[in-house]
Design brief:
Strands 1, 2, 3, 4, 5, 6, 7, 8 and 9 form a nine-stranded mixed β-sheet that branches. It contains eleven helices and nine strands. The chain has helices at residues 3-15, 46-49, 97-111, 134-142, 155-158, 188-196, 233-240, 253-262, 268-286, 295-314, 325-332; strands at residues 20-22, 59-67, 83-92, 119-124, 150-153, 159-160, 166-177, 200-214, 217-232. The two termini are 21 Å apart. Helices cover 35% and strands 23% of the residues. The model has no long low-confidence stretch (mean pLDDT 96). Helix 3 packs parallel to helix 4 and helix 9 runs antiparallel to helix 10 (295-314).
């Protein structure tokens, strides 16, 4: 499946289940000065997750543009990037764990055709803020997931919050085995190791937002139970296109092919960084950011300078990065005119 087909299939799947399609918000938050960029699909929806009625109803679906730079030093490996698209479906006080998990499973296995024998699940193990998510465990088991492939994990990995304040809650994550021969059954320790080695890739995350955080502390439950689903498009495309890294998918391949044809030094790490940073810089500029010494502009300047440094490593001539906008347009013109 092409990336455009995957996007559209996701939106259509949830539209058929009563969700209103909402557009992506701009990368620069419109009413939130606590962050420089949108870093998660749910961020523009925080007021509605806290109880404010949404004009499109209680079931929403969309594809949100995001930028995260906290993992910028990891860019160049198989799965990390600074700009990404987050597929999301949300329930604002409507359905909860059972429907969210069943639809996640249905779309991944029955619509996208992934192999259930390569699927691994994590759930929240519980702590002083919330109990173990036994309900999710039982739902996954009812869908045929063996209990020994459901791993109870700490809040470090299986509790989602957009920051120190706002809606939060435990989550259940889906990982997919991308190795050639398959890893089979794994102990918890083996699963964690496989995740670190990028042999299993997180493709989906169901967050059950029924708690509220204030100044870094969980202070109680929200007035409604919400579902916040996140599926990173780049990683999902990588899995569905049977690649072992995001840079060989059709979201990057036109850029990468042009780089391969024109660089003097075939350094894969630097080529991936240049491709990622060009893409991120372009989307920042499209949403009104200009290079500067502060806030969003400083991040953009840093991204461009880092791209230039790695372009020098590759032997690209000065002032040549702009030449790579054309393949980027070919990838995204129909999605972001």
């Amino acid at each position: 499946m092409k990336s455009n087909d995957i996007r559209n299939t996701f939106l259509s799947f949830f539209k058929e289940r009563g969700h209103s399609i909402i557009p992506s918000a701009p990368l620069v938050p419109e009413n939130d000065s606590s962050v420089l960029f949108i870093t998660a699909g749910m961020q523009p929806l925080v007021p509605y997750l806290l109880g404010q009625p949404h004009p499109e109803g209680k079931r929403l679906v969309g594809v949100q543009k995001c930028v995260r730079t906290q993992d910028i030093d990891e860019v160049g490996d198989a799965t990390h990037d600074t700009f990404f698209e987050m597929l999301g479906n949300w329930s604002l006080g409507d359905y909860f764990k059972e429907d969210a998990i069943k639809w996640s499973h249905e779309l991944l296995i029955h619509t996208f055709g992934l192999d259930p024998a390569r699927l691994y699940i994590t759930v929240f193990e519980g702590n002083d803020d919330a109990p173990k998510d036994s309900e999710s465990i039982e739902i996954w088991k009812s869908l045929g997931i063996p209990e020994n492939r459901i791993y109870e994990m700490s809040a470090e990995t299986n509790w989602w919050s957009p920051g120190e304040n706002g809606p939060c809650g435990p989550d259940s994550e889906m990982f997919y085995d991308i190795t050639q021969d398959g890893l089979g059954d794994l102990s918890k320790e083996e699963f964690i190791q496989a995740d670190e080695e990028q042999k299993v890739i997180e493709v989906w995350n169901d967050v059950f937002m029924e708690y509220e955080k204030k100044d870094g502390e969980v202070i109680g439950k929200l007035s409604q139970k919400n579902v916040d689903t996140g599926a990173g498009l780049e990683r999902l495309v990588m899995v569905l296109q049977k690649k072992d890294n995001i840079f060989e998918t059709d979201l990057f391949s036109p850029l990468m092919k042009k780089l391969v044809a024109e660089v003097e030094n075939q350094d894969q790490y630097s080529m991936r960084i240049v491709a990622d940073h060009i893409r991120t810089a372009a989307f920042m500029i499209i949403d009104g950011v200009s290079p500067s010494n502060s806030e969003q502009g400083y991040v953009l300047r840093r991204i461009i300078r880092r791209a230039v440094r790695h372009a020098d490593t590759l032997g690209l001539p000065e002032d040549s990065l702009g030449n790579y906008i054309e393949p980027l347009e070919d990838i995204y013109r129909s999605v972001y005119p």
